[in-house]
Amino acid sequence: MHNAGIEFVKSGSPCRSSAPAVLMTIQSSPMTSDVSTSQGVLPPAGFGVYESSAAGSSASFVHSEPDNEETELYSVSWNQDSSCFAAGTSRGFRIYNCDRFKETFRRDLKSGGFKIVEMLFRCNILALVGSKTNSQYPPNKVVIWDDHQSRCIGEFSFRSEVRAVKLRRDRVVIVVEHKIYVYNFMDLKLLHQIETLANPRGLCCLSHHLNTSVLACPGLRRGQVRVEHFGLNMTKFINAHDSQIASMTLTMDGLLLATASIRGTLIRIFNTMDGTRLQEVRRGVDRADIYSIALSPNVQWLAVSSDKGTVHIFSLRVRVVGEDPSTDCTAVKGSALYHQGSSNSLDGLISPNTGANPSSSLSFLKGVLPKYFSSEWSFAQFHLPECTQFMSAFASQNTVIIVGMDGSFYRCSFDPVNGGVMVQQEYIRFLKTETRPR
């Protein structure tokens, strides 16, 4: 085995994209045969699935060693359906399965770790960005790694630090502080460049249905979200908040957007077709740093984690489009809503208010009292240590999974009728570290 970390296959002269700030190198054989079919979708053959340990399959990584106190956790990120999460560490990266929880495999390096590890569902394609301590791959370089073939299949270098990478089956999206680059996964050709307000958090989210191609990111004004409907060749600007955006997420079909600002008190749900605000819920009154926003697959629930040490669950009044976001049936329904979006009627997106989220008993005085007295408050809650950054997501029905930057994993459930304090079902310490995120 090689002991120098990732070792790429040398190829001919690099292919330069049309973006002046980007150098793209396609490694070894052409990308068309390695990454996608002629339709721009990953082929099923030759792409492994992260189900079991694959130790020793990559000749470019060193043998894994037992955990020691020197291992630091740099990042955690869910895959697109939250069935797995990736952990970037000071030694490489690890992939964990959420149901049932287990470490499926890890890759360790001699040259340093990765600050960004982005999965593509459960397949073997990963986007990797090195940490500042990585002597071989700096934070301004993105590596597209095929773990099945144990080699790099694409590489992007930028003049500034990469803040985030997002993957679809047909797109690679790379975020730097003031710009977002969108590439075709088939041949890594640059398709779009999007200017943004300063974006140190790397905020960007994508839809993941094959027949809807939606991207949401900060606009050029404070509190503004830019939504690109690539399939419709349409751009929509949504003035979501008065303060800067702190967190955002899209539904799998890209039709709904949830946002929070740096104030961290309100979370708002928007129709991405016309920018209409569909619902507003309140996390609290005091300012908070929102770490994550998650929407359940059936768009019935919303989860928010913050530095206050609480994961809040809210009941949504948005009409359910489909139960399973991975099915073609749901995707077709989502596409149908696209074409209905040109009308002013919101009947297709809003269901009757069930009153599940508690409101203030003084809400009848909302014209006199401050606005928060008439707000919709959280339906269920789960309490966590305040000193740690946690990311939440939805698992099976009425279950929430939470990953912390202290190396902890929680699974908890909530009562869909009565709400209240959630019940902890599982706790695992998957990494022995007390390191805070850098």
Automatic annotation (TrEMBL):
GO cellular component: phagophore assembly site membrane
Keywords, in A-Z order: Repeat, WD repeat
Statement: the UniProt record of this protein carries the keyword Zinc: no
SUPFAM superfamilies named among the record's database cross-references: WD40 repeat-like
Cited InterPro entries: PROPPIN (IPR048720), WD40/YVTN_repeat-like_dom_sf (IPR015943), WD40_repeat_dom_sf (IPR036322), WD40_rpt (IPR001680)
Pfam family, one: PROPPIN
Topology within the bilayer: Peripheral membrane protein
Compartment list: Preautophagosomal structure membrane
Family matches, as SMART domains: WD40 (SM00320)
Superkingdom assignment: Eukaryota
Family membership noted in the UniProt record: Belongs to the WD repeat PROPPIN family.
Name recorded for this polypeptide: Autophagy-related protein 18c
Species assigned in the record: Abeliophyllum distichum
